[in-house]
Design goal:
The protein is 72% helix and 0% strand. The chain is mostly helical. The chain has one domain (3-117): c-terminal domain of poly(a) binding protein.
Length: 118
């Protein structure tokens, strides 16, 4: 990866284009699960989304394998795709960017209140 690709995100664009091309070959129920997985993994992304690339690649690989074996997507992922994604992203209760922002905001407010009160 060159510096320019790192700055512009060109490498990520190629990765995601490849993921989407692979997902197009999936059966309809597996594609629907793919869309849900993407939506539920997004909150666990860092600023660039690079931390999700191996996770998304693995999830898509799982969907491809189960489709090739003729398995139902619900048998593999269960009914709680959001929980499945939380587990993929680092375990149930994994911190998302919203959690980090909330903690930072609460810390800033606490510091400001502490300064103004003293």
């Amino acid at each position: 990866m060159t510096f320019w690709e790192n700055i512009t995100g060109g490498d990520l664009t190629r990765e995601w284009t490849g993921f989407e091309a692979r997902a197009e070959a999936l059966p309809a129920d597996h594609r629907a699960a793919w869309e849900q997985i993407k939506a539920h993994l997004l909150p666990y992304s860092d600023f660039t989304g690079r931390n999700l690339v191996p996770i998304v690649d693995g999830a898509l690989g799982l969907l491809e394998e189960t489709a090739a074996d003729g398995q139902d997507v619900r048998d593999v992922l269960g009914d709680d795709i959001e929980g499945f994604c939380a587990a993929l992203a680092g375990g149930e209760g994994a911190r998302s960017h919203r959690d980090r922002w909330r903690e930072r905001l609460n810390g800033n407010v606490a510091r400001k209140l502490g300064r103004s009160g003293g």
